[in-house]
């Protein structure tokens, strides 16, 4: 890909943020998504970003693998699979502007719903993760769709895990396994759509070197972030990412 040195440095910083988001503040990689879409064509940027997300997922699983809540994951996967199929069909004909606007609107809607429920007192801490089937299916389809269309499933699933009452480590462990499995399963679809090829993988090989230090920085920071601040950062990153997609 024909990019300048400055553009590569910007992508490198966004790649480090991918690693940080996977081990500290899930949802923060929406900023990376917006940066990649600004430097590269929006559609092609999703194919470059996906392998970097998988590298971050592997590092997150290594760090938090013991904290996953597997009943929640098994409940989500069928709905997520349906969302990925819908997202693949949408990407087959949608243009860059339609993709950005759709994902941005969904992210802001989900953040708004979460904030409204918290203000109404519906988001009090739960003694155990709430895994209602209706909620899991709704968020699962949205998560699958957004992760396939723009690698933006992180904020949707973050809002689901927060609304379900997950604490910090359970949140990170469940999210780590979820995205490792889902992002890996997206690779054949992305290759079929022409989003991943030899050129994009060459760029990924260079940018992956920056994901690793970002993940270690996140691991060192996560225990210094209290639960309330953690949740505010996740929601704030979701709103920021949605606005960036809509306003670009």
UniProtKB/TrEMBL annotation:
The chain crosses the membrane at residues 47-64, 76-93, 99-117, 138-163, 169-189, 201-217, 229-247. Keywords: Cell membrane, Membrane, Transmembrane, Transmembrane helix, Transport. Pfam families: TauE (PF01925). It is a multi-pass membrane protein. InterPro entries: TM_pro_TauE-like, TSUP. The keyword Transmembrane helix applies. It comes from the Bacteria. PANTHER family: MEMBRANE TRANSPORTER PROTEIN YDHB-RELATED, TRANSMEMBRANE PROTEIN YFCA. Belongs to the 4-toluene sulfonate uptake permease (TSUP) (TC 2.A.102) family. This is Probable membrane transporter protein. It comes from Streptomyces pathocidini. The lineage of its organism: Bacteria, Bacillati, Actinomycetota, Actinomycetes, Kitasatosporales.
């Amino acid at each position: 890909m024909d990019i300048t040195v400055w553009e590569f440095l910007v992508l490198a910083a966004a790649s480090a943020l991918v690693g940080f988001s996977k081990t500290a503040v899930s949802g923060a990689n929406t900023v990376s998504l917006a940066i990649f879409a600004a430097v590269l064509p929006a559609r092609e940027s999703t194919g470059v970003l996906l392998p970097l997300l998988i590298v971050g997922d592997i590092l997150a699983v290594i760090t938090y693998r013991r904290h996953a809540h597997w009943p929640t994951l098994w409940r989500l996967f069928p709905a997520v699979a349906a969302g990925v199929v819908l997202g693949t069909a949408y990407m087959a004909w949608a243009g860059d502007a339609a993709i950005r606007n759709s994902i941005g609107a969904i992210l802001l809607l989900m953040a708004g719903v979460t904030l409204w429920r918290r203000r109404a007192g519906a988001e009090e801490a739960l003694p155990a993760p709430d895994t209602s089937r209706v909620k899991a299916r709704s968020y699962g389809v949205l998560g699958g769709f957004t992760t396939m269309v723009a690698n933006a499933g992180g904020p949707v699933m973050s809002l689901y895990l927060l609304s379900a009452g997950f604490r910090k480590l359970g949140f990170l462990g469940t999210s780590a396994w979820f995205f490792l499995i889902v992002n890996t399963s997206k690779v054949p679809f992305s290759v079929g759509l022409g989003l991943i090829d030899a050129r994009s993988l060459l760029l990924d090989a260079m940018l992956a070197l920056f994901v690793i230090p970002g993940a270690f920085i996140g691991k060192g920071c996560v225990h210094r972030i209290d639960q309330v601040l953690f949740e505010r950062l996740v929601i704030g990153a979701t709103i920021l990412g949605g606005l960036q997609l809509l306003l670009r």
